[in-house]
Amino acid sequence: xxxxxxxxxxxxxxxxxxxRAPLPTYSAAYEPRTVDERGMWMEADEQERRLRDxxxxxxxxxxxRYVRGVLCRTVGEERCNTVRIYVMEVPAFNAMMAxxxxxxxxxxxxxxxxxxxxLGAVLGHEFAHFELRHSLRGFKKKxxxxxxxxxxxxxxxxxxxxxxxxxxxxxGSMFKFDRxxxxxxxxxxxxxxxxxxxxxxxxxxxWQHVMGEADATAVGRGRKPKQRYTAGxxxxxxxxxNRALTLGALAAKSGHGGxxxxxxxxxxxxxxxxxxxxxxxxxxxxxxxEYILSLLAKNSGxxxxxxxxxxxxxxxxxxxxxxxSAAQFYGEAIKSGYSxxxxxxxxxxxLLRSGRGADAKAALTEYLRLKPDAADAKxxxxxxxx
Amino acid sequence: xxxxxxxxxxxxxLGTGPALANSLVSPGPRGKIARSNMSxxxxxxxxxxxxxxxxxxxxxxxxxxxxxxVTFYGGIAVGQPLVREVNKKNAPLPRVSAxxxxxxxxxxxxxxxxxxxxxxxxxxxxxxxxxxSGHKGIAFTYFYVRPxxxxxxxxxxxxxxVGDRLxxxxxxxxxxxxxxxxxxxFRQLAATLKF
Amino acid sequence: xxxxAFLRAGLxxxxxxxxxxxxxxxxxxxxxxxxxxxxxxxxxxxxxSVHVGAQSTGGMYExxxxxxxxxxxxxxxxxxxxxxxxxxxxxIYEEGPGPDAALATQYGNLxxxxxxxxxxxxxxxxxxxxxxxxxxxxxxWSLGTGMAGLPALRGADYALFVNTYDAYGSLGRxxxxxxxxxxxxxxxxxxxxxxxxxxxxxTGELVWxxxxxxxxxxxxxxxxxxxxxxxxxxxxxxxPPAQPIQPARGEKGS
Lengths: 386, 195, 254
Known about the structure:
In chain A, a hairpin with a 4-residue loop joins strand 2 and strand 3. Chain A has a three-stranded mixed beta sheet with strand order 1-3-2, sandwiched between helices. With 386 residues, chain A is mainly alpha-helical. Chain A is elongated, with a radius of gyration of 25 Å. Chain A has helices at residues 2-13, 35-52, 61-75, 77-80, 107-112, 116-131, 134-159, 164-194, 202-220, 240-254, 262-269, 273-281, 286-300, 304-317, 320-335, 342-353, 357-370, 377-385; strands spanning 84-88, 95-97, 102-106. The longest helix of chain C has 25 residues, at 99-123.
C-alpha cells in the first residue's frame, strides 16, 4: 500500500494527471485479523485503559472537542468519528495514533502549530499511519531484522568474527523502512488536506518551523545548526529539509488553497497558553524556546502571556544581562495589561538579582498587595528585608 | 568499532552484575555526607544507596527510593548542575549561579526535574523562609508526576546558598500514604542538618 | 589497571552475572503472625495484569491477544476455585467511571511500585537494603488505609493483586539457544515472571507477597494455569489452626 502510494504520488508530482488521486476506501469498523494484529490491539487497549486515568491527561472537554474538530475537518467525518483523543501535558512535539484508534496529542504540539491547518496536517499524518496500518508492518519488519541480528551475533560467536558492522546494517534497515512509512503517511495526509478546508501548504510550513526550532536549539547550546539534505542513518523520519521541500512542491502542484484558521486557533488555545509555555520554559532549551516565542509573536504580536514567558526564560538562564532583559520583558507585560500577580514578583526578583534593591522592593510590595496570602508571601517579605 | 562493542558489552555486564552494596546508616551523628561538610544526626536507621546521582549527591531511603527518598546535595558549586547530566548534548541541566536568591532554589530543582526526568507535571507549592544550619534559607513543598510510573509524589525540602555553594536536602514519597508516614523522620534529619 | 586486566575483570563480571540468576528465583513474604480473619473472607481481585506473548528469535516480545485472554480467564477462574476450597469468596473488582477510577488507578500504580520495591530491596540480594536484611523476619509494608474507601471495595476484607508476564520462546528462539550453547553465547529462551500480593483493607498492610522470576505452568491451557495459580498462591496466609474451614458459598467451576 505504501509503495503504491509513493508511486502514485510520484506520478502526480511529474504533473501527468492534474486531477486528485482518490482516497483509499476506508472501512471504519475494521477488526484485527492476524495473531500479531490482535496482540497489538490488545496492548493498545490496555494502554488506553491506563491513559483514561492518567494524571498527565488534560481533562478538558472544550479542548478535546476542539482538537477533534480539527481532525474531523481534516480527514472527514467518516474517518474521524471513532477516534478517541487524549491531550497530554508533555512539552514535546509529538502526536501518535495506536492501532486501536486512540490518538494521543502532546501539549508541546499544540504550542508549536500556528493554525488549524498545521495541526490538521500532523493529526492527518498520524491518522494516515493508522489507516495504512503501519504499526503492524513496522512490527513484522522489526521482528525479521532482530531475528537476523540474533543469529548473526550467535554465529559470529561460533566463527569468532566481528559481526558488529552487519548488525549496524540490519538496524539501519529497520529505520529505513520506517522512513518509507513516514513518506507514505505524509502523502496520504496531503490527500486529506486537499479535501479539507485547510490549504495543502500547511504541512510544508510546519516542517520549516521544526527545522528553524532545531537550529535555534543547537545555536542556543553552542552547537552548529545543521539541516541535512540526506537522511542520516538513524533518522526515523525523513530529514526535515527533504520533507519541507517535497511537501512544498506537492502542495504547489495541488494548488489547494483554503483558510488555515490561525485566528480561531489562537483563540481556542489562549486559555492553555500559560500552562504550555510554562512546560516549554522548564525544558532549559533557551534557543528553541526563544524561537517558539518569536514565531507565536510574529502571528499574534507580543502579548502579555508571551512577554511573561520570555521574562521567565531569561530569568531562568540568569546571566547578569539576562536579568536586565527579563525585567524589561516583565515590565512590557505589565504595560500590555498582563494581570497575574506573579509578574510583579518575578520582576522584583530579577531586579533584586541585578542589584536594584529599591525598584525590586516596589515590585515585590505590589505582588504582596495583589496576593497577600500567596504561598510564598513570607519568603518574599524576608527577601525585602535584606 | 570492535573496541566500542567490547566497551558496550563490559558496561552492560557491569550494569547488571552485582552492584556496590547499599550500606546501613546507624542512628547518631554522621558527617561527610555527599562527600561534603554536610552532617546530620538521624534518630533511627536509614539505608544509604550505592547509586551515584552526582559527585556531591547522596541518597538515603527507608523502603526503597521509589517509596521514600532523601537526597542530599552537599554544596553544589557555582556552574555545576544539581545531578550528573545523562544527556549533556540534548538535555543540558540548569546550573547553580552566583547570585541565586533563596526563591531560585525551588526553581532550579523544578527545571532539573523537567529536563532530566521528563517530569512534565511539577508544581512548587508552599515556600517559607527558614534558617538552615545558621544560614538564611528556604523550606518548600512540591508535587510531581514522573511519566514512567505515573505515581503522584509529594516533596519537601530545605536549602540555602552559602558562599558560592548550594546546599539542599529533599524528601520525596508517593502522595498516597508514604509521604505522611515518613515525613517526621525527614523533619528530624532536617532539624539536625549542619554544613 | 591495564586494558587486559580490565577486560578480564569484565569477563569475570559477565560470568558472575550469568551464573547468579540460578539461585533464589522465588520468594514469599508474610507479615509475622498474620492470619486470615475467621470465617469466610471476602477478597476482591483487582484487575489482574496479565501479559502473554511469544519471544521472537531476536528476543522481541510479541503480545498475543488470544493467549492473554485465555490466560486471564483461566487464572481468574482457578483463583476463585482455589480460594473457594479455602473457604474464601473471590469477587472481581468492578470499576466505575469518574474520579474513583483515577484513584483506583493510582492505588494500582502504587501497588506496582510497592511490589517492585519489596522484590528489589528485600527479597533478592544485590540491591537489598541493610535495614531489610537485618530485620529479615519482618515484613513491614503498607498502602495505607485509604484504599478501603474505594466504592468497589466496600464490605470487602482483602484486595488481591496478581501480575504475570509470560513470553514463550518461539521455535526460532529455542534453536538459537541450542546453537548459542555450542558457540558459547548465552541465550535465554522464554521469560516467565509474576507476583501476587494481598492487602488487608482494614489496616492497609501488605500481609503477603509472593514473587517468582521463573514461573512454571503454561498459562495458555487450563491445567497449566492451575499450576501457575498454585505457584502464585504459594505461602498464601491461612487461618488460625483452631478455625474450622467453612465450605465455600461460591459455585465451583463457573
